[in-house]
Amino acid sequence: MAQRHSLAVPYGAPALAISFLACVATGLELSVNDHAADFTLSTELGPPISLSCLVHNSSQAEELLWYRGDGQVGLKDGNRVNISNICISPVNESDNGVTFTCKLARDKSVQVSVILDVKFPPRLSGEETLYVEEEKDVTLTCNSKSNPQAQTTWYKNNQSLTLQQNHHELYQTSEIFRLSIKKVQKSDNGTYTCVVQSRLGNGTRDFHLIVEDKKPVFPKEAVIAGVVVVTITILFGIVARKDKFFKVW
């Protein structure tokens, strides 16, 4: 007679299976500010913004988690079950490009992210005076950080700067705009202006470049060589006349 073999079912497994099937059947999901998928939120500097995360199609209390980048945001006890809100106040430049993510605590794969797109004009002003010795190199640097990225231009004495090959060099990133002048000459004297133009505003910064006379280089090597030659000459003279010195003594 064939024997029947039964598989042992762990206690509580049916309940877990039912819970899992219920989750699949109801399509549990999250939304942030009524967005069920990742999205980008455009905003400006200053005014606070609120992000609201909501659980959908859940038949039980669900705990929510918030993350700023990779770091978890601290939430109060009454602000983490089925609905959770966070506020960014005030909004500043450092928030631009930051990702805020709401996740389901028991299944972090259920999540919605929002990327902040913070608009701000270039913040550029003031002036600086630079004294540079002739034949030396000098670099003028502007902070051109803005969103959207601004257009940047260099002027000399209120005229567009004519770049000379092997004499002027430009370097630019999303945050800085740099002009390098190699082996400055007296003709490089003048006021250089960095102009940053954005649809949200403009910024300028002046650099007053003063090229000083080249300082004479002290001939250290020549002096050392001369001292060595004189010393050796004296020593040879002493050796050549050592007999006379001995007779005197």
From TrEMBL:
Topology of the protein relative to the lipid bilayer: Single-pass type I membrane protein
A Pfam family: ig
Gene Ontology CC terms: cell-cell junction; plasma membrane
SUPFAM superfamilies, alphabetized: Immunoglobulin
Gene Ontology biological process terms from the UniProt entry: cell-cell adhesion
Principal subcellular localization: membrane
InterPro entries xrefs: Cell_adhesion_signaling, Ig-like_dom, Ig-like_dom_sf, Ig-like_fold, Ig_sub, Ig_sub2, Immunoglobulin_dom
PROSITE patterns: IG_LIKE, PROKAR_LIPOPROTEIN
A Gene Ontology molecular function term of the record: cell adhesion molecule binding
Keyword annotations of the record: Disulfide bond, Glycoprotein, Immunoglobulin domain, Membrane, Transmembrane, Transmembrane helix
Gene3D superfamilies linked to this entry: Immunoglobulins
The Ig-like domain, residue ranges: 14-113, 122-212
Transmembrane segment boundaries: 222-240
Domain of life: Eukaryota
Protein's UniProt keywords contain Hydrolase: no
Subcellular compartments: Membrane
Coiled coil, from the record: none
Protein name as it appears in the record: TMIG1 protein
Source organism of this protein record: Erpornis zantholeuca
Lineage, uppermost ranks: Eukaryota, Metazoa, Chordata, Craniata, Vertebrata
